[in-house]
Design a protein that fits this description.
The complex is a heterotrimer of chains A (546), B (179) and C (162).
Chain A: H1 3-14, E1 19-23, E2 26-30, H2 36-46, E3 50-59, E4 65-74, E5 79-87, E6 93-95, H3 105-115, E7 118-120, E8 169-173, E9 185-191, E10 194-201, H4 209-215, H5 219-227, H6 234-249, H7 255-283, H8 287-308, E11 317-318, E12 321-322, H9 328-353, H10 356-362, H11 370-376, H12 381-384, H13 392-395, H14 416-439, E13 458-465, E14 468-476, E15 481-487, H15 489-493, H16 495-501, H17 509-515, H18 520-523, H19 535-542
Helix pairs in contact in A: 5-6, 7-8, 7-14, 7-17, 8-9, 9-14
Chain B: H1 15-23, E1 45-47, H2 57-61, E2 67-71, E3 77-82, H3 91-95, E4 101-103, E5 118-123, E6 126-127, E7 134-135, H4 138-147, H5 159-174
Antiparallel strand pairs in B: 1-4, 2-3, 3-5, 6-7
Chain C: E1 15-20, H1 26-34, E2 47-48, E3 57-61, H2 69-77, E4 84-88, H3 89-94, H4 108-117, E5 124-128, H5 135-146, E6 156-160
Parallel strand pairs in C: 1-2, 1-3, 3-4, 4-5
Helix pairs in contact in C: 1-5
The chains are: A alpha+beta (546), B alpha+beta (179), C alpha/beta (162).
Amino acid sequence: MDIISKYIDVIKAIEPSADVGVSGDTIYATVSHEKIRDLVKTIYWDHGCFFRTCAGSDERMLNGFFALYHIFGDDGHGLNIVLKLYADPDKPVVPSIADIVPAADWCEMEARDLLGIEFSGRKPYRLVLPPYWPKNLYPLRKDVAYDTKPQLIVSSEKVGIWGKTATGVAVPIGPYHPALHEPEYFELYVEGERVIDVRYRGFHVHRGIEKLGESKLTYQQVNFIAERICGICGFEHSVCYAQAVEKAAGIDVPERAKFVRSIVLEVERIHSHLLWIGVAAHLLGYDTGFMHTWRIREHVMVIAEMLTGSRKTYGINLIGGVRRDIDDEKKRRVLEVLELVEKEFTVLVKTMTSVPQIMKRLRGTGILSKEDARRLSVVGPTARGSGLDRDVRRDLPYAAYSYADFNVPVYDDGDNLSRFLVRVDEVYESISIIRQLLDQLPKGPVMNEEFNIPEGRMAVSVVEAPRGEDVHFIITGRGKPYRWRVRAPTYQNIPALRVMLRDQPLADAPITIASIDPCFSCTDRVFVIDRSGSRRRLDKIMYGLG
Amino acid sequence: MGLRDIRGSRLGFLRALVIAGRRGRVTRRYPYEEPLLTSDFRGRIDIDETKCIGCGACVNACPPNALELLRSRDGYVSLRYFVGRCIFCWRCVDVCPTGAIRGTREFELATDDLSDLYDVLIHEPMKCRECGSLFSTKRMGEYVVSKSPVVENYVDLDPGCRRERLLKAIEGRFGGRSG
Amino acid sequence: MVEVGKPRFLGRSIWVFHLNTGSCNGCDIEVLDVLTPYHDAERFGVKLVVSPRHADAALLTGPITLESLPKVIRAIEAMPRPRIIVALGSCACGGNIWYKSYSVVGGVPELLKILEERGVVVDGVYYVPGCPVRPESIIYAIALIKGLASKKVRAKVKRVGG
């Protein structure tokens, strides 16, 4: 029995009157409030699916209700499953699934902050917006304009304000700290040198991207804003968005354009991993490694500029193809540079791993066990360093990855060293993929300009960013997207920090935080831990209610 | 190429000195030397005033609205390019119908005065021969006529007067007043 | 060619503090790139300091988001006079694509108005367009502050007839 029929049977067994549809590799089902929790429990735990994201949507203009979409993924078989819930337009309330699926915690709070959908059966808190934001102003609703600004109040919270029942001394890290590139605020509660608890307040980078994509910009312009969600992994956001729209509208992309996209994606992965290795070396105190790694990385930036026109935020992606082509001269240059990078990188890694201090600080610190990783649905090198074998390039192939042969490195220890080694191995794999794809580059155009985007279509697109899997969910509208939801990889990985930082010495905190390769601008939203939060409550979220 | 066994000698880290010595100095002494710039780099744009017709296609395509079409009270239309908000995507270069926008490789754009970053191109409007109101631009009229000469006899009427003419023509064709 | 003046009491080397007010990190990694061997900003005496109290100039990236506004103001107030703000990138100069979004103040020109209301004096502001800013653009801006290079960009007003 093929896998799609199996899932349809599972859904119908719990909810016989569900409205089920299949489109490509995605199963869509509308479920009632009473049966959603049982269905989620079956799909997530019994069938081993992973949770991708949940997206709220204001559909009062289309059908008079609010809607909430839960998106799951079965990576082993290359499927996406979308479960839709309707909510009352005047007082939208849906049952929460955060106790069954801890990874859904943030997504639900974001839907609550931005759309006003309440969740029954859980304790709510403000997540995405600043604390003084007026209570009844929900930016993502269709009747609120994108440039509505409330009265500006300049005030910030105090250190340790959530520490009523937590013990220990609060050590604030951030928002502006020499170890961090982005504004994010970590509060570590320490007893002596051991970290016993972590509070995190981020969201300093929330710029209202989803709202802009749905109101002010047209389809082709959203590619450029998607690229600027993150300056380090921007191109994959742009590819993910373009693929989502192409899937929804059924647009054919020329083969050569898919190859160009994959090649530039791998160039981005090499540059991102080299960046991370340099920054990790810097945080460990080994500045020589930092300088040498970034010296090697400069070559990669130059070929990125040669291929696309800009060192970062490439801007070559459009719906229907790419704007620039690779000719023979560029191909030759790229192969030259890759050889140079591979040679120098091997020598550099051998040197770095023979520094005894680095190995001592990486081995055995920041441990994330396999069970915790599965419970939290972490993604990317964080998951592969803890023994979970997940890689979207192999499980749900997109662009031209089905034409390349590559390994997925997996290490079982779950400490900082495993995550470091996963990234080192991935650099070599990327170099090999680029060589294979350049070899097989097909002839043809790079752009398809004849297409129509109909309204009311849905699609889920998943892409492997350097930091993990990135999910874009889109509902098409007229001339611009109706609902665009971005779930960046770091969003999934930050809850894992609380497990990794617990009971660690304070000096290991920066490298542990950096080891998930946090990209807070991708995350775009903040997680405010419950004001009266005690350790017990955190344990409840982390370990699935006992 | 896995790195599953990590064994280095105790003094393996001194290899870094060898690497540094062998590579030598790599610094490009910009601004006294040439920077690492390729020929594909996207810098600021340059608008050619002999070709621009003031149509606004670039304004529609620009994601951050760095290009804006403003109409002053006396009817003059100006295309304003704000370098400060430009994202250097060159979409305007793609969509311009006359090829008036040209990309350059300039990146030395720092300044201490924000008003240096505005480029303005002022177009003369067309004057309607019946009611005298100012609309569109003269260049746009010439462009439209060059593409389709039949419109020459009503290109200098503003949209309001054109509508009047059309309604009168329909009336005349079907006899008597319509509706 | 216009000479750009700097406050006379700034010496030869400028210590900078990197302030990210909500940027996508593109400009921030280029700021880090400026310190690496290929571009080496330390030739000009530029050093990245850890605390705003040691800094002469703040390299500000990002459109200023509402969440980070109070922290940015506090960081700028902590800098001793004379203070220079260098607005790096399209986000800081004009707000980039989200210049009117609900969650963004809009860039350094708007921030200066807020700082003026609170009585915080800024002695010099420099704007560096780019998305992301090239390391060479940052070096050019530093050379401009130190008086080693002259300003090249100038506003152009052209009139077009029929």
